[in-house]
Here is the input.
Amino acid sequence: MIQLELAGENALILYLPAEISERNLRQLQQVQHQVRLLLHEQLQELLPSYASLLIVLKPEHRGLLVIKTLLEQQLKVHNSICEQSGQLVVLPVYYHPAWDLAAVAERAGLSTTQVIDVHQSVEYRVYAIGFAPGFAYLGELDERLATPRLVSPRPKVPKGAVAIADRQTAVYPAESPGGWNILGLCPKALFKPEYAGTAEALMPFAVGDRVRFQSISRNEFLALGGQLPQELC
Here is the structure.
C-alpha cells in the first residue's frame, strides 16, 4: 500500500512497504515517472530510497494539499508495476587480499578466487544512492558472501574501495571512514562534480540501474587511471 504524507512546507514523502525488493524498486520507478508527468515545472527534486520517495517542490508550487490530493488520485488509478530493466553498468575491480578478501573467504568456506567469482557473477540493482554522492547501495549479494559490517569501522577507506556488508555491496566514491568489508578497488570515477550544470551525468548510474563487477589485473587497474593506496605500492 502506498502512503503519501506531508514532509515540510515544500515537500511530500511517499512510503511503500518497508522492505528491500524488486517490487518496491519497480513501483518507485513508475511513481517517479508519474510524478514528473503530473508536476512538471513545479517539481524541484525527487529523492528515492529503498521504500520511499521524497518529492521536493519549488517554492512557487500551487499548494501542497492540492498537489497531495492530485497525486493520491493519480496513484490510485495507475497503481500498477512496470517492468523496467534499467541500464547495465559494468564496473572493473582489482580484487586484492590486502583488506578483507581472505576473511570473507574464510567465513564463507570458500577460496579467495571463489569469492571473486561469486561476487562478479551477480547482476546487482541500484536500490538507493546515499551516504556520499555516488555511493550506490547494490543488492542483493549472494547469501554465501553475506558478511556483517566490521566491529570497528576504518577511519579511512580508499577511494574506489569495493566492499560488502550483509547482503549488499557498494563502491566508495571517495576516501572516507567506513565499516564495510573491502574486496578490492575500482578505478572508475563514480561522482564527477565538475559536470554539475552540464549535460554530462554526475554519476554513471541511477536508482533502478543494474551493475555488474568485472575482475581486472593490477596493470589494467593502473591503465584505467586507478591509484593504488600506499599499502599496495
Summary: The radius of gyration is 20 Å. The mean pLDDT is 89.
